[in-house]
Amino acid sequence: MDQSNSRHTNADPVLAQAVEWVDEGRRVALATVTRTWGSAPRRAGSHMAIAANGDFAGSVSGGCIEGAVIQAALGVIESGEPRTLEFGVTNEMAWEVGLACGGRVHLFVEPVVGAAVVETPVQQAR
Amino acid sequence: MRGDVLREVVDAQRTGRDVVVATRLSDGAQELIARGARSAVLGLDGDSVAAALGTGDPRTVETADGPVFLRPYVRPPRLIIVGAVHIAQALVPMATIAGLQVTVLDPREGFATADRFPGAALVREWPDQVMYGLRPDDRTGVVALTHDPKIDDPALIAALESDAFYIGALGSRKTQAARRERLGGLGFDGAALERIHGPVGLPIGARTPEEIAVAVLAQVIGALRLG
């Protein structure tokens, strides 16, 4: 971790994790919250990275839809085609899963493609 | 996300550059747009890209080829706290939790110490020596808390000469009036001096250093989110 006074900051840990998995040769999908209604717990733009073996990082809700998103992401990794997902959470359901939000979210799930290209850092090329 | 776009976003975040990733939701067509650059692939208008970068909030825009999701990745807002004083000791952790990248600046011996500010970015220099190096920009707030014009004024001058989204200064109305007179004498006009929030913080009747920190942080967030 960079503890210096630099104004530069660390990257989004979820995206950094996705890059790390790709560098390890693993197939990865990225889920992104594109829109929310009501008191959805994760804002638009929130990311979750999913590897082909089901490992994941980040979150797109308070925990109630992650399982379904992982399933969809594995399908996206297989097909190579992006898809959109919509989740509406009823108040009753939400209570059962411990998330009394009643919100609604749209997600975009996409494969991380063309990722095999590993750029050689300039300093190592010399 | 395209692998090259993903790498570019991570690199931009690590090097402090602002970018937008635009994704057409119907087919996943994607484009990375740097601040100031034009959309070359998806034909987006510059205003919607600029708006996403300005607020840092994602948005979906309609195009002839369907909806396009704009996800800005912008530097976290910064808060430069001038004066490693008691209020700052409360403000640093609160502001950090709220997502601000905090720097504490105080030249005085014994003030900006790691004991008093564990884990914080500390600068033990005079503001006139370091403020220009810190380069306050429109994602930076500056709050002066020392009560000492020798320290506060140079920091406020640098802030006024920048696009800082928030400038605040501790002190009573009397102190503020004296400050306005000093800074006015240096050529800052009324509009410039209006940028300084003082007395500092939202009027919530704050009494303790901790409560004043809450009032200041609320005012900073208001300036960031509401303008």
Beta-strand percentage range of chain B: 15-25%
Q: Percent of residues of chain A in helical segments?
A: 25-40%
Q: Report the end-to-end length of chain B measured between terminal Cα atoms.
A: 32 Å
| Oligomeric status | heterodimer
Counting DSSP H or I runs of 4 or more residues, the number of helices of chain A is 4
How many domains in all of chain A?
1
What's the order of the H and E elements of chain B? Answer: HEEHEEEHEEHEHEHHEH
- Number of helix segments of chain B? 8
CATH top level assignment of the largest domain in chain B:
Alpha Beta
- Helix- and strand-based class of chain B? alpha/beta
- C-alpha Rg of chain A (nearest Å): 17 Å
Strand content of chain A: 25-35%
Provide structural commentary.
Chain A is of the alpha+beta class. Chain A is 28% helix and 25% strand. Chain A has one domain. Residues 1-8, 95-100 and 115-126 of chain A have low confidence and may be disordered. Chain B is α/β, with parallel strands linked by helices and 227 residues long. Chain B folds into 2 domains: 3-73, no CATH class; 78-226, NAD(P)-binding Rossmann-like Domain (Rossmann fold, 3-Layer(aba) Sandwich), CATH 3.40.50. Chain B has 8 helices and 10 strands. Chain B has a 6-stranded parallel beta sheet with strand order 7-6-5-8-9-10, sandwiched between helices. The longest helix of chain B is centred in the last third of the chain and has 18 residues, at 209-226. The two termini of chain B are 32 Å apart. The chains are: A alpha+beta (126), B alpha/beta (227). Chain A binds chain B through residues 5, 7-12, 15-16, 18-19, 22, 30, 32, 34-35, 44-45, 81-82, 84, 108, 110, 112-117, 119, and chain B through 1-4, 6-7, 9-11, 13-16, 23, 25, 27-28, 57-60, 69, 71-73, 75-76, 78, 101, 103, 121-123, 134-135.
